[in-house]
Amino acid sequence: MFENAFNSIDKELRNEDGLASELDYAEQTSWILFLKYLDDMEQEREDEAELEGKDYTPTLPNDMRWKSWASPKNPDGTDRKDVLTGEDLITFVNTELFPTLKKYREDATSPDTIEYKIGEIFSEITNKFRSGYSLRDVLEIVDGLEFNTQEAKHELSDLYESRIKRMGNAGRNGGEYYTPRPLIRAMIKVVDPKIGETVYDGACGSAGFLCEAYAHMLTTDISASDYSTLQTRTFYGQEKKSLAYIIGIMNMILHGITAPNIRRTNTLTENVMDIQEKDRHDVILANPPFGSGERPEVQQNFPIKSGEMAYLFMQHFIRKLRAGGRAAVVIKNTFLSNGDAAALRRELLETCDLHTVLDCPAKVFQGAGVKTVVLFFEKGRKTRKTWYYALDPGRSLGKGSPLRDDELAEFLELQKTKADSPKSWTVAREDIDAETMDMSVKNPFAPEEAPLRSPEEIIEDMLARDKETAAILEDIRGML
Q1: Which residues contact 153 (CB under 8 A, 6 or more apart)?
Q2: Rounded distance, CA 30 to CA 281, Å?
Q3: What is the pTM of this model?
Q4: Where is the DNA methylase adenine-specific domain positioned along the sequence (predicted)?
Q5: Are 198 and 236 in contact, with CB atoms under 8 Å apart?
Q6: Which of 22-31, 46-55, 109-118, 401-410 has the lowest mean pLDDT?
């Protein structure tokens, strides 16, 4: 049912003049799904209150609820004929619905409330539908979706994940939102967050790390108290970009977290020296954006200045981690060797135990031309030795052949004991050059590659071949 519904929605979106790409499709589908989900949740709470003889006040005023404007019903449950459509529907959405919901941010008591999330979402996006008839068709499709069972939520969340994944092919910005789920799951298995610990991602994008961590921690026999802890006091995220923020919230909601603790903010504007114990977390999982571009005033928030955003995020994560806390962070593999990161590598080794480095092959990230590593570290003790594993699926990765969970099985097994193998080895802290702090991935068990020839040798060889070719041509001419 859900797959057919999403296919039908995609067909309507492709016919809408106001939508140009997968990024637009995801954004516009998200706010519509969000309002339908919210109305279903409100109705469920209203029914429960009625059974208990209690009063319940819905979050939204009656005329802004889904069942009032998107899918009004007659008393007998049939659809009303006088539904808004065409220009009337677009006018209502643009001049009444969005402005009303936008105000909820101002009146919310806390950024962690559903009211604040409503206000934040509708402050960051606009309705891009130009045709009220296309919007009406999408509303009717979404109205047929039910969110009231765990099976339905699971199927819908999987479909939403596939939409986020497709965004990676819609442009460079889209690719920032999606980290391959097999890689995320492997990172989580190593870090192994427990109920009672907090999990943080300061560049959460579509919230893939938080959603997968929730799935990892949610067991079938979980108690009501632990479930409440998971829902409200476990997962925390921050995201700078509005579209990623909206998609992250929707992704967490569809995975079962009703009021996600995600905040719309630029993490790097926080001075890391101001981070206090109450701000720290037990587990950090992240894939921060790569690239330069942060303004000089932002760099002033960090003791080690850098134009590379990932290096600033690393400083943030080190200080955001509680003593004894664990982290797994994706970063470009040049972090291990670049001279401008030497001071940061030294700080990491001095303040944390960098116990594992997972070297990822090219094209693990679709559309990205950089090689990456995953750094696994614990806060509170110095690094004595680091175990490396060079992931090699034995095939070329790409859009049609993404990384699979089973291809990380050997890494997960060997990581438990940090054993040597043809793909893994250990480097002692004292073997790292004290000045350069070079920690490049160099597998001692890999066969040595033939040394590259010098430019002079290459030119000399080319000239020799040219002489041979000229001589052969002279011989041929003599035969003619």
Answers
A1: 147, 254, 255, 256
A2: 29
A3: 0.84
A4: 152-449
A5: yes
A6: 109-118
